[in-house]
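SAMPLE LOG
Freezer: B-3
Tube label: C17
Construct: single chain, 305 aa
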Amino acid sequence: MNVLTRRHFLQGAGGLFLGTAGLGSYAFALEPGFRLELTSYHVAPPRWPQALRVRAAVLADIHACDPLMSAARVRRIAELANRLQPDIVFLLGDFNAGHRYVTAPVYPEQWGEALSILRAPLGVYAILGNHDWWHGPLPGMPGDGGESVRKALRHANIAVLENDAIRIANNGRPFWVAGLADQLAYRAGPRRFEGIDDLSGTLAKVGDDAPVVLLAHEPFVFRRVPQEVSLTLCGHTHGGQVNLPLLTATYAEAQFGTRRIYGHIAEHGRQMIISAGLGTSILPVRFLCPPEVVDVQIGGAPATA
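STRUCTURE (predicted):
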């Protein structure tokens, strides 16, 4: 990920919003701090049995920090996820804050306690994101390779999957959940990163032909995901975070090599959903891209949220 390019884009967009008090207040306070959308998808991937119905609540990019993503707000988000009555819950990484424009950090034990109320009969599963690797609760605070994040998740009875896969059965019908380790875990130099992701090794742990759901923080891996994976779930992009006509699409093309940084994407028999996430990175700003909880139903007849 080209962090400098993203920083310049968001700082430029932030300057644009500050030019008018109304837009500035909305983009820097109301949308990121008070709005919360529920986005629902019903997908029927080619290799997913119609009789296997799984409803998943997906939370991505929490970026916990005061005041916009306090522990109390994280808890309210978890309560909303519970009200969906999902079969399973997926957390897609980046629990640590993504910028320094905060009033106080929210430590892993605080957001972990808030997430500990998540309930689903098939379990709650998480992966880590790049900010969980790069630093502590706030940028500039010492990191520990994500260990404090893992500890908080496990204390909340949330299973952490890093280059690992687990077989699950819903009403006797099996499927696999595979979690990929982060693709940008280490800074290797200016605008260069090294990941610890092992896609082939992770999928090698899938022991039969039951369908697979892949959790990957960054969507970059999708071009390498084989057709044996029924659905890939990702975060990281924040849906652009600032949605400006033409400019955001141009930025996405330069930054990610594609304009598809949000929503349901199907190509070459493969399917992916990218969440806009919940928190903010670089700047505490969102515009026409509100925080969202994602409700995904895989297989079966569509259900009403």
